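Need Pseudouridine synthase RsuA/RluA-like domain-containing protein's 3D structure for a figure. Predict it.
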Amino acid sequence: MSGAVSLSAVLTKSLISSLRTTYCRNLGMPMTLIHSLAVTHVFRKQAKMFGLCSYGSRTKTFSTSSSTTTFGATLSNSSSDCPYPEYNRLLPCPSQNGLPRVEHLVVREGGPILEYISKAVDLPPQFVADLIHFGAVYYALVCPTPPPTATTEQIKIFKEVTDPDVLRKRKSIKGKTFREAQKTFRITRVDEFVEAGTYLRVHIHPKRFPRCYEIDWKSRIIAVTESYVILDKPAGTSVGGTTDNIEESCATFATRALGLTDPLWTTHQIDNCTEGCVVLARTKQYCSVFHGKIREKKVKKLYLALAAAPVPVGVVTHYMRPVNVAPRLVSKDITKGWHMCQLEVLECKEVPWPTASTEQKLRIDNCGWPKKDVAYECKINLLTGKTHQVRAQLAAIGSPIVGDSMYIPAAIAEAMNPGLNPFGEDGKHYESEDERTKAVEEWMAQHGKEPSIAIGLQACQISWDDGEHFYEARTPWWR
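Structure prediction for Pseudouridine synthase RsuA/RluA-like domain-containing protein:
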């Protein structure tokens, strides 16, 4: 929280020195920005007190590779030993994501949102306007409750702005419960007025999707009807946007490509690194209708998966740990509270491994997979629909998807050291829950980062109402 975080001088100095060494050399970053990142990095656990902030999942986007790309706004003039070109807009889009930075603010004096954020975090007004346009700014009428890890200063500010005598004077929360007033919403207008006491969360470095600007979106449209649009989603894009970026999404770019006056609605999701058929509703009403069809299991999806090893034909069943964080862990054993995952492998055929030029173009990372002579294209009927289901299940049987840099490292680790996976066939017996918990943490650490652009996975067919509506994607990228 800006103005509410008290840092240890020793920790700050140490981290700034580390960031200067690593990122000034590689990214050309100003010291003012490094200082801010040091503040955010050291206290990222405390920052989670504000709900939707996701530092844990974003730390894997750190990059130390050399780049001349500019990452967002310049906060002040560059220092002579660390040049940083001045750039005050979110476009053009960087080729890779910048370091994570989320600011948490409590408004001390009411005023226009644009002016307040610009002054509070020293950002150009046009850049803040872009952040609002991207959906990267949120507010709550009352500051969220701090977690046990909050600092003394954070707790002090929370108590000040939520004191009953203070809240009673705020007409905006009259009639609302304390919990209702703490709900977070997007800021949608640059001229919106925020009153004193309002909590703000500003995602200064939204997750970016450069591939959106490389795609011929009209060529990706499979069908257009009065109720919906079928899109052949390109890999490396988000269907409906992320927490901090609703601008660079398939729904937004498909809407523009078709020249529609009303925005398309997201009806279901597939992973950013997956390509293939996606249904976008043209109205809110049909969006609800399609959601109903999914709940009633009237929607059938077929996938093509390019596996790094053979996959047996037949039904594959696992149980997925009910924790909403990647990597998704699965077990063949029935476990109370875990979600059943089922897919049916209809066929599996040997195909050539993707060429080096194709892998380079789509930034395919196979993480040292030892055998690259041939791959195995599998047609899969998805019987249940869980996040990362196909990816996690195929990796669990030793046949990870080509390019899946999150699950391939774990598959390699288990092959080299059977029993490392606590949920695998060779999983060990643990004497205590603490021992098992430690084993799970070590297993999660064997997984890698989320793929940059594509993996060998395509939603090749989608149909509903017993095939009355039937659509196929075009040729997958690996062919």
